[in-house]
Amino acid sequence: MDLKRVKKEAAELSNDSDSAGVSAKPMDEDMKRWKGTISGPKDTPYDGGTFVIDIELTSSYPFEPPKMKFDTRVWHPNVSSQTGAICLDILKKEWSPALTIKTALISVQALLAAPEPDDPQDGVVAKEYLGDFEKWKKTARLWTEQYAMASADTQILAPLLEMGFSEEQVIACPARPLSCSLGSAPRSSVQLARKYEIEADCGTHSDAPTDWSWARRHGKHCAMQVVT
């Protein structure tokens, strides 16, 4: 990873925060894991919402695209309603090293305003978009009001706070909070947290516990990785 380039992007994003309706900042010292935000485009069902984007930079960045997915649930043909995965060409084969984290976020924001249902990530949402547009628009708006109207910080913290961890614990280790000091968190949560770390890449794991109620409420079928 070109660390000099990444630091420059971080500085520019910090100085130009939210001027285009997008923002991003690194969440750990090695600057591989970031959190971004996108303001919902005006005159769309997403207007007024703030959508949190999980960003991971590979060791080959900027010659490989950043890995991005929605943390905030969104009803959109090109975004998985379950995992937040995004179908967008510049995050795949159309990526260029000339692009940046900021321009990628702006492209995701543009995708919110102009869905491409003929090349969907979520077939159920795309089918509704094409077959009953008014119903799709109503559902997209409902999801925006339900999931994207809270502040970005609240959206990021909410799942862990629901598990019983304090805000101080989560803020102290934002990238991997469950691996940090667990203090006075409930014993049941401590036991689970010591055994599993919730990863950004969604999927399934044969050893995943079945009682992650907060994960189900947030629509995430999260891969679990044993913490050594």
Name the poorly predicted regions. Answer: 174-228
The major beta sheet can be summarized as: 4 strands, antiparallel
Give the CATH level 1 class of the largest domain.
Answer: Alpha Beta
Strand order of the largest sheet: 1-2-3-4
How far apart lie the N and C ends? 26 Å
**Helicity, in percent?**
25-40%
Please provide the ordered H/E string of secondary-structure elements.
HEEEEHHHHHHEHE
Q: Assign an overall shape.
A: globular
Please identify the structural class as seen in this structure. Answer: alpha+beta
Q: What's the count of strands?
A: 6
Tally of helical runs: 8
Question: In CATH terms, what is the architecture of the largest domain?
Answer: Roll
Number of domains: 2
> What is the third-level CATH name, the topology of the largest domain?
Ubiquitin Conjugating Enzyme
**C-alpha Rg, in Å?**
18 Å
How much of the sequence lies in strands comes to 15-25%
CATH superfamily annotation of the largest domain: Ubiquitin Conjugating Enzyme
The average pLDDT score comes to: 76
How would the blueprint of this fold be written?
Elements: H1 3-15, E1 22-26, E2 33-39, E3 50-56, E4 67-70, H2 101-113, H3 123-131, H4 133-147, H5 152-163, H6 167-172, H7 187-195, E5 196-202, H8 213-217, E6 222-226
Antiparallel strand pairs: 1-2, 2-3, 3-4, 5-6
How is this structure best described in words?
The chain has 228 residues and is α+β, with helices and mostly antiparallel strands. It folds into 2 domains: 3-149, Ubiquitin Conjugating Enzyme; 153-226, no CATH class. Helices cover 36% and strands 15% of the residues. The strands form 2 sheets. The chain has a 4-stranded antiparallel β-sheet with strand order 1-2-3-4, with helices on both faces. Strands 5-6 form a two-stranded antiparallel sheet. Strand 1 and strand 2 form a beta hairpin. Helix 3 crosses helix 4. The chain starts with a helix and ends with a strand.
